[in-house]
What we know:
Residues 69-254 form the IclR-ED domain. Residues 6-68 form the HTH iclR-type domain. This is DNA-binding IclR family transcriptional regulator. It comes from Brachybacterium fresconis. This protein has 261 residues and is α+β, with helices and mostly antiparallel strands. It contains nine helices and eight strands. The protein folds into two domains: 7-66, Winged helix-like DNA-binding domain superfamily/Winged helix DNA-binding domain (Arc Repressor Mutant, subunit A), CATH 1.10.10.10; 72-251, Beta-Lactamase. It has helices at residues 7-20, 28-35, 39-51, 68-79, 82-98, 140-146, 151-157, 176-189, 231-251, and strands at 55-58, 63-66, 101-108, 111-118, 133-135, 192-195, 202-210, 216-225. The strands form two sheets. The chain has a six-stranded antiparallel beta sheet, sandwiched between helices. The longest helix has 21 residues, at 231-251. The N and C termini lie far apart (45 Å). The mean pLDDT is 86.
Amino acid sequence: MAPPKVPAADATVRMLTFLAAQRSPIAAARIADELDLPRSRTYDLLATLVEHGYVMHLDQERVYGLGPAAHELSGAYLRQEPLARIGRRVMEAMVDEVGESGHLAVLHGRDVLYVIEERARNRPGLVTDVGVRLSAHLTASGRAILAALPPAQVRALFGTRADFTSRTAARGPEGPRDLRELLARVRADGVAHEAGEVTEELASVAAVVRDHAGWPAASVAITFEEARATEADRERCTAAVRAAAAEITRRLGGRRPEASA
């Protein structure tokens, strides 16, 4: 005999599942219609989820989307085994091929959280140990993921100049406009770059990993000494992160999102 449903819990789970399937935040009226919920109940549930960070409300656009807490749950799932198990051998093979250190990271609020690190022999130590968090806008790993998010999601995370920090003299984007321009270049190039903004004298290149819904689940990056890297070295690292990200995407059952009509 099936256990009885708890209506509020059932509606909440259906709402989060519905929002997770959308490519961008949407209006409350559409949520109510799609889930066949009363408008008043829909707004009450959304208000509770916003309060706890599982949903974000973009006031100016009057739309709702998943919030940082929901993405942290996703990151926790990935950290607890599947992504690390799937990605580790791919990362090991990539590092062996290029002879530079590599890492796999997921988005965690405004930060990236490193879930795999593979150190290459005779290469400088990195700050990207497993479990370390760094601001996403400064790292190649974070930029690769942010560039694959809907613009409204990026605005919710990095909407004001106060959301931006720096670590070194090689400052990264300092405000929303800088970040928008940088992410447009990432989308055009298909990979993200960072040079000296996390650790002086080191640079990174990263590519996004997508899940079954086409959502950016993680990113693969390689870090190298900027001064000693030739153009051929950089091209080899770029090709390697593209190939590794594509392979992990394939193993996750991931796909690229469909182009907008």
